[in-house]
């Protein structure tokens, strides 16, 4: 049966009621975005427990998150100081190849010369031993610890052109900006962002209830009719958003949607985190996330204003929480002596479907992979954009919209899973059982085949995971060439090609990096100026 446009708009015009259960980063990002998208044409409620805490460890993001802030019409100077935020130009991988080795995965598109990516040219004739330094300007900026903006706030000269916008301009989404690589992302305290967004959303009409949801009631069709709270009665809605974190209270527990584990290919299932004070007068704020390989996983280092978020992500099959905490404390040194450790058990994988009937899971309830490439908040942001894109009418087409949503969200997580598995499979390090097993553990089927292709032709759009999952082919090049455990060959055609233009491109990158390192302020200088109101 088809639904006419007028019938649909009549149903669509009724004010929709949305109840979001959970007030972590996912809950408040969703509330803020829906408010910004629909204004008071949608009736929004967020209910969060005062007893059940949120996950917040000091997070790193994708550069795409700027579209989220732009959608909310927020400037960096509005939210960054509130969230102890800093800039992230890359992920720096330490000791994944061998002790003392490091390389970067930067926010910078890799150039092509005569139709071949720079990685191919570099493999044919490595200018130095550092693929990342020869091919990307950002690598030098990270080593030098500088900000991607000058003290007057202007952005470094990149191919990317910042859009001029005024209050009436259209707002962009992630999908519209594929191809143009923005030069940086952020580090921030996710729980402070949730707090900031609480103010944003409630000032714009979102109802905020602090209470425990104690029951989720289903109607005869198996749809959620209401959630029951301890002190605020029953909350009814057209759409329920499950932002209850790893619990998946609505989606997994009440609706019984199965959780598909990724544990067979990504065994890290635990973390221990610390918030370490940082003396900004003396210590540099590195403009990158650092991922340092360890005996049973890796340690993240995320520089924030006045502190560093750090934690050890490990596989409980290979070490214990006590040993992991010891390794982390040794790594950080005396600065962590009085800081309490936060032990976290992670649920790795995704709900089979994230949207079931009138319930959609966003955040950890929908799915999570270990934070190696900082994808958690990207998953949330992507999911919210898709909710708006596939927002239900209440009519007969909704099944199809949900199906499209589930495909899109499933592809993003499955694609990211492949990308992360590649990190372990391609890491040269094999000095203990944990690292040896990364070479023999099963990988997602198609990845095994892709790796065989990549040995002879560096990753491009034709050979990476074929659906949108946030990561461009150049990211795969960075990991393969940086990790060093899989032999990658250059395209044979380059033996007959003239490399003059490629050598000129490497030289252009070197000169540009040298110039920017001279000119740019350090992150410490930049954020001191921002916080002083510039
Ligand atoms: C170790 C680790 C490191 C991470 N690092 C990064 C990173 O670098 N980059 C990144 O992008 N992401 C990272 N993430 C992910 C990121 O922290 C989360 O995606 C993000 O915080 C969203 O969490 P959430 O809102 O889904 O869940 P939570 O923060 O767990 O929030 C759950 C909410 O549900 C509420 N709730 C639960 N049950 C009930 C109930 N019965 N009644 C009422 N309310 C209830 C709670 O009160 C809480 O408000 C990391 C995660 C982990 C575990
Ligand atoms: N579109 C994403 C993907 C991305 C491109 N380069 C990087 C580098 C790193 Cl460290 C993470 C993510 C990415 C984005 O632009 O954020």
TrEMBL record:
What are the catalytic residues?
Answer: 88
Q: Which key words are in the record?
A: FAD, Flavoprotein, Nucleotide-binding
UniProt key word Nucleotide-binding: yes
Q: Which domain of life is it from?
A: Bacteria
Q: Which residues bind FAD?
A: 23-26, 52, 55, 57, 60, 213, 364, 374, 377
Sequence positions that bind 7-chloro-L-tryptophan: 88
Q: What is this protein called?
A: Tryptophan halogenase
Annotated organism of origin:
Saccharomonospora piscinae
């Amino acid at each position: 049966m088809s639904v006419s446009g007028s019938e649909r708009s009549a149903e669509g015009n009724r004010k929709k009621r949305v109840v979001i259960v959970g007030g972590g980063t996912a809950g408040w990002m969703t509330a803020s975005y829906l408010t910004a998208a629909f204004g008071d044409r949608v009736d929004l409620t967020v209910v969060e427990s005062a007893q059940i805490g949120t996950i917040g460890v000091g997070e790193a993001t994708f550069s795409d998150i700027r579209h989220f802030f732009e959608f909310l019409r927020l400037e960096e100077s509005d939210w960054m100081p509130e969230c102890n935020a800093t800039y992230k130009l890359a992920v720096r991988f330490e000791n994944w190849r061998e002790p003392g080795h490091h390389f970067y995965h930067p926010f910078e598109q890799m150039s092509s010369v005569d139709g071949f990516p720079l990685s191919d040219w570099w493999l044919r004739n490595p200018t130095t031993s550092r693929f990342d330094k020869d091919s990307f300007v950002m690598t030098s900026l990270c080593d030098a610890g500088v900000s991607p903006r000058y003290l007057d706030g202007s952005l470094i000269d990149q191919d990317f052109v910042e859009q001029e916008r005024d209050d009436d301009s259209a707002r962009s989404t992630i999908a519209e900006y594929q191809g143009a690589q923005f030069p940086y992302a952020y580090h921030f305290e996710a729980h402070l962002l949730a707090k900031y967004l609480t103010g944003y959303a409630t000032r714009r009409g979102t109802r905020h209830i602090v209470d425990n949801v104690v029951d989720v009631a289903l109607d005869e069709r198996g749809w959620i009719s209401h959630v029951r709270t301890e002190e605020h009665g029953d909350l009814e809605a057209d759409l329920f958003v499950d932002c209850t974190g790893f619990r998946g209270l609505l989606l997994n527990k009440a609706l019984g949607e199965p959780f598909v584990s990724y544990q067979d290919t990504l065994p890290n299932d635990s973390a221990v985190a610390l918030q370490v004070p940082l003396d900004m007068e003396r210590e540099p704020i590195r403009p990158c996330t650092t991922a340092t390989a360890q005996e049973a996983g890796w340690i993240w280092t995320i520089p924030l204003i006045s502190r560093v978020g750090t934690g050890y992500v490990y596989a409980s099959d290979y070490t214990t929480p006590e040993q992991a905490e010891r390794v982390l404390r040794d790594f950080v040194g005396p600065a962590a002596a009085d800081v309490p450790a936060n032990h976290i058990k992670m649920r790795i994988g995704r709900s089979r479907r994230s949207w079931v009937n009138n319930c959609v899971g966003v955040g950890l309830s929908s799915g999570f992979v270990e934070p190696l490439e900082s994808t958690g908040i990207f998953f949330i942001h992507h999911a919210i954009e898709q909710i708006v894109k596939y927002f239900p009418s209440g009519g007969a087409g909704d099944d199809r919209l949900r199906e499209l949503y589930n495909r899109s969200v499933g592809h993003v997580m499955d694609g990211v899973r492949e990308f992360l598995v590649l990190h372990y499979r391609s890491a040269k390090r094999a000095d203990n059982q944990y690292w040896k097993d990364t070479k023999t553990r099963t990988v997602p089927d198609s990845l095994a085949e892709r790796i065989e292709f990549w040995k002879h032709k560096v990753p491009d759009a034709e050979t990476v995971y074929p659906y949108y999952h946030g990561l461009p082919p150049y990211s795969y090049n960075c990991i393969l060439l940086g990790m060093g455990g899989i032999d990658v060959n250059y395209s044979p055609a380059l033996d007959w090609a003239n490399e003059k233009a490629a050598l000129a491109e490497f030289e252009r990158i070197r000169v540009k990096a040298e110039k920017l390192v001279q000119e740019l302020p350090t992150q410490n200088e930049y954020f001191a100026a921002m916080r002083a109101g510039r």
